[in-house]
Amino acid sequence: LYAVNAGSNTVSVFRHTNRTTRLVDIAPSRGIAPTSVAEHRGRVYVLNSGGTPNVAAFARRSDGSLAPIARGTRALAPGADGAAQVSVTPDGRALIVSERLSNRLERLPLDRLGRPGRPVVTRSAGDVPFGFAISRQGTIVVSEAGASSVSSYRETASGRLRAITAAQLVGQGAACWVAITPSGRYAYTGNAAGSISGFAIAR
């Protein structure tokens, strides 16, 4: 279990069993104000939203502690503001980052050592992109808190994200978080109004 600590610019690592949750490590986040963390096959990525926003890559040791990956810190594209979430694509080939204040999404390719590459920026289809989830089929579903909408995207060969459904209104206040079922057929938004909205995902 990984938790970012924005106040101390660190990441906490816990080991969870049926009976206990034990603190294993506290590692510097390699940036300021970490807001999100993602893991894929032993590599951990921390999104730092303060100062010059960046993504920092770590390798998980056998005991669960984190080791920084050399040259594994990459600044987001100029103008990044309000970095909200980072996730790894299901194939492990890229990171996706949402930016709620600059109203855009970034895709950062990952090399064979897990180091983030140069970001490719896509303008968000809706205002204030916040949370998102990625299906096994590669569909990215993003919640937009501005007008409380949801959009879906697919990656293109150039690394940009192509909008499929753009800013579909949720009908409930401030859609903030997204979850997708393991089958990839349904997406759900958690809304600040105190509700959950469901959507079907077509092929």
Structural account:
- With 203 residues, the protein is mainly β.
- The strands form five sheets. It has a four-stranded antiparallel sheet, with no helix packed on it. The protein has a four-stranded antiparallel sheet with strand order 8-9-10-11, with no helix packed on it. Strands 12-13-14-15 form a four-stranded antiparallel sheet, with no helix packed on it.
- The protein has strands at residues 2-5, 10-16, 21-28, 32-40, 43-50, 54-60, 66-75, 83-88, 94-99, 104-109, 120-123, 129-134, 140-144, 149-155, 161-169, 175-180, 186-191, 195-200.
- It is 0% helix and 59% strand.
- The radius of gyration is 17 Å and the shape is globular.
- The mean pLDDT is 96.
- Strand 8 (83-88) and strand 9 form a beta hairpin.
Brief characterization of the structure:
The protein has 203 residues and is mostly beta strands. Helices cover 0% and strands 59% of the residues.
Task: Describe the secondary-structure layout.
Layout: E1 2-5, E2 10-16, E3 21-28, E4 32-40, E5 43-50, E6 54-60, E7 66-75, E8 83-88, E9 94-99, E10 104-109, E11 120-123, E12 129-134, E13 140-144, E14 149-155, E15 161-169, E16 175-180, E17 186-191, E18 195-200
Antiparallel strand pairs: 1-2, 2-3, 4-5, 5-6, 6-7, 8-9, 9-10, 10-11, 12-13, 13-14, 14-15, 16-17, 17-18
